[in-house]
Amino acid sequence: MCESRPSISDAFLNFLNKITNQVDALYILGDLFEYWIGDDSKQHENIIRAIKALTGRHIKVFLMHGNRDFLIGPVFEKKTGALLLKDLTLIKIYGRKILLSHGDSLCTDDIEYQSFKNKVRNESWKNEFLKKPLTERIHIANEFRKQSELNKKNKSEEIMDANPEEVNRILTQFNYPDFFIHGHTHRPNYHSINLDGHQMQRVVLGDWYEQGSYLTLDLHGIKTYQL
Q1: Residue 2's pLDDT band (boundaries 50, 70, 90)?
Q2: How many CA atoms lie within 13 A of 223 on its CB side?
């Protein structure tokens, strides 16, 4: 979500409003916001209220940090009623093992990005950043965005995609889940994986830059929808 794309924010709000009470939970796997400069900001209050309305109806909302909104913290949790999940969380739904991730940790070939991520996820860096005035934080966030877009132009598609060996390593680490669902790479797809005799699916979520999308998981399996 971003102030410069109000139509996408409206689409997300409409999506939340249409969630029925038959839904058990909503999982948001990171990058809900284009950037989040701290829980003390007044950003996206309409979205915060909408999520709170959803949890107020006893529909659980789980949220994972993305590479753009990793500063979402406990105040946001309290305001919305959402619960933060750690990246790489294994859950079980209808007897199926499902591994959830934002997905940026899979892009191990993008050394420049991983180095930047390690820097800004450091607790001392985050603490120093959050001490700065809101206007300065907004300026820094916008500069990071500009630099990120410039860097992408000089990188191949392969470098910015999930590394297959890292995917297999994580699937093995988590004992071969039925589904591995993540976003970040903006390459929505279903990938069938056969590893050590185990058949699995890696499901990549789409972004919300131009059009919203989501997937559902019920007794019949996974299905993807476009808004």
Answers
A1: confident
A2: 5
